[in-house]
Write a structure and sequence with these properties.
heterodimer; A: 188 residues; alpha+beta; Muramoyl-pentapeptide Carboxypeptidase, domain 2; 2 domains; four-stranded antiparallel sheet; B: 194 residues
């Protein structure tokens, strides 16, 4: 039998591990070794386990809340077609409403900051996504060199929906091609 | 059996694993206990939802591939809404461009992987993130592609089929049969003679 060492684990985690191990018909020792070996493999493979789990959690939210994949250039082309056909207001309304829905979905099991973080992970085509609290206000900044102007407006609507859904009041916003800045009031 | 100590439980772990994890936590300037607790809380949640670290690794790899190939995520309902606003002529052009995007993606995976069909099988399983039934069956001479996704509109279904046809064309397969209705696709492909 290999040498053993003792590890101090948080009580809640140790208890949850015990439940998981029992549900799979294995010992806590076997279950924990299996998990820790997998973590080692990830780290030794040059990946960061924390980042990997963080992304997986975001993807899981995406999976559960009905996201799909699309080539980025194709989406921008579609959006331009719709805007040229005079549907910009209708589309912005539907993106705002989807933002509202997403915020409600995310906030069921995540804090406000976690919800925004998950969203930023799902929007992986964005070069920079920042949410900065400054006293009674906060700023959401979003940069992407590939966004078209029309898509920037549309995405701003989605972000506003998310922020309003999370309980913020939007004070003002600024949109340019590939740039979105939304200033919000942080209550309490 | 775990034993209790000041809000923590002591549990046995294989010694060599602890030593290696200690090296990693030291490298990150953290105590082993905080490093393990931080990661375990995420891992336990994933396992509790029926996932595993292997699933997380696969998901990460697929997302990295998509990211570098210019594929992004969008809520399905928004894709349905946008496509519903495009007229017939516009849709035809979009489907053509979707085919071309798929063709490019097919070239991309044929360069990146020794076995592009196997890679496609893995990538396709995450194309539709919503609960869905999607499969790429066969290999060699003939491929059967099927998916069922009830939340896709007819236009979105056709868009995804066009992308897939483009991918298969780039991998050297011609479309033999491509049938679709709202949320359902059945398509078969045969290897073209080189």
């Amino acid at each position: 039998m290999p040498d053993r060492k003792m590890l101090a684990a948080r009580v809640d985690l140790a208890d949850r591990l015990k439940v998981l191990a029992e549900s799979r018909g294995v010992t806590v020792y076997a279950m924990l070794n299996d998990i820790l070996e997998s973590i080692l493999e990830v780290e030794e493979g040059g990946l960061n386990i924390k980042r990997l789990l963080d992304e997986y959690r975001a993807m899981d939210y995406g999976r559960r809340s009905g996201f799909t994949t699309i080539p980025e250039n194709l989406l921008y082309e579609l959006v331009d077609l719709c805007f040229e056909s005079g549907y910009s207001d209708k589309l912005r309304k539907s993106w705002f409403e989807t933002g509202l829905w997403l915020s409600k979905y995310l906030s069921v099991s995540s804090s406000i900051d976690e919800s925004i973080h998950i969203l930023s992970r799902l929007m992986w085509n964005i070069s920079e996504f920042r949410f900065e609290r400054r006293g009674g206000e906060a700023i959401l900044l979003c940069f992407s060199s590939r966004f078209t102007l029309n898509y920037s407006f549309l995405f701003e609507s989605l972000l506003k929906g998310v922020l309003v859904g999370l309980g913020f009041d939007v004070l003002d916003s600024e949109v340019d091609k590939g740039f979105i800045r939304i200033r919000i009031e942080v209550k309490g | 059996m775990p034993s209790r100590s000041q809000g923590r439980k002591l549990i046995f772990v294989q010694a060599d694993i602890v030593d290696k994890l200690m090296e990693i936590s030291n490298r990150e300037g953290r105590t082993l206990s905080s490093f393990i607790s931080d990661i375990l809380s995420d891992v336990v949640r994933i396992y509790g939802d029926g996932g595993s670290i292997k699933d997380a690794v696969r998901s990460y790899m697929v997302a990295s591939m998509h990211r570098s190939a210019g594929i992004m995520l969008i809520p399905v309902n928004l894709m349905n809404t946008i496509l519903s606003r495009v007229d017939r002529e516009g849709l035809d052009e979009i489907y053509r461009n979707a085919y071309e995007s798929g063709y490019w993606y097919g070239r991309y995976i044929s360069v990146k992987f020794d076995n592009p069909i196997e890679a496609l099988r893995i990538l396709v399983s995450s194309t539709l993130l919503a609960p869905t039934d999607i499969s790429v069956e066969g290999g060699g001479e003939a491929i059967l592609f099927r998916f069922i996704a009830s939340n896709l509109s007819s236009e979105s279904t056709k868009l995804l089929l066009s992308i897939f046809e483009g991918v298969m064309s780039a991998l050297g397969y011609k479309t033999e049969r491509a049938e679709y209705t709202r949320g359902i696709v059945i398509a078969s492909f045969r290897k073209t003679v080189a």
